[in-house]
Specification:
The protein has a domain of about 100 residues: UDP N-Acetylglucosamine Acyltransferase, domain 1, CATH 2.160.10.10. It has no helices and 26 strands. The strands form five sheets. Strands 1-4-7-10-13-16-19-21-22-23 form a ten-stranded mixed sheet, with no helix packed on it. The radius of gyration is 18 Å and the shape is globular. The relative contact order is 0.09.
């Protein structure tokens, strides 16, 4: 643990956890062994982070979020309050004969999830396994993410579908009917002036400043 990381007295940080410089872990959070957090992260109250999770620099994980094994968060990711990640496509508590409890260690049914840099997962969203949430994408609150999300995409719903695109700064650059992106165009953020090339629902940065 970095010398200037802060851990609330009620938090549980198991052996083998790495906390970067300036990272803060608040009350009643639980971080399991083998997890790594980068510099200047914030882990809110009652957050549960399983073992072996990889979290980059300057990530915010708000209260009551649950991050399971096989999840990776790149730099600058925001996980809002009550978000739940999953990692097992065929979950069962026991063996088929009900005589033995299944172990918690990863197996062939455990699928990784990657949240790319700058992305935001809205409050109370649920994220399926084996997916990628793209760079600076935004998942709307209460959404159920069942497929990968493109870079800079705004997705919403149950299941989540793309309804627009967002800027690095978080402002919406274009909105459209669910799953019906408009024709190719250049997008300019009204808030910060960054420009993007948009085609088929996909976004490429023109100048990011």
């Amino acid at each position: 643990m970095s010398a200037n990381a802060r851990v609330h007295p009620t938090a549980i940080v198991e052996e083998g956890v790495t906390l970067g410089a300036g990272t803060a872990v608040w009350d009643s959070a639980h971080i399991r062994h083998g997890t790594t957090l980068g510099d200047e992260c914030v882990v809110g109250e009652k957050v549960a982070i399983a073992y072996g999770v990889r979290i980059g620099h300057r990530c915010k994980i708000n209260s009551h979020a649950s991050i399971c094994t096989a999840v990776t968060l790149e730099d600058g990711v925001m996980v809002s309050a009550g978000v739940v990640f999953t990692n097992d496509r065929f979950p069962r508590a026991t063996t088929p004969d009900l005589k033995y409890l299944r172990p918690s260690e990863p197996d062939d049914a455990t699928l990784p999830t990657l949240v790319r840099e700058g992305a935001t997962i809205g409050a109370n969203a649920t994220v399926g396994c084996g997916l990628t949430v793209g760079r600076f994408a935004m998942v709307g609150m209460g959404s159920l993410v069942t497929k990968s999300v493109p870079d800079f995409a705004l997705v919403f719903g149950q299941p989540a579908v793309q309804v627009g695109c967002v800027c690095r700064c978080g402002q919406v650059t274009v909105r459209f009917a669910p799953g019906q992106p408009p024709a190719a165009q250049t997008l300019t953020c009204a808030a910060c002036g960054r420009r993007y090339e948009f085609a088929g629902g996909r976004v490429a940065e023109s100048n990011c400043g």
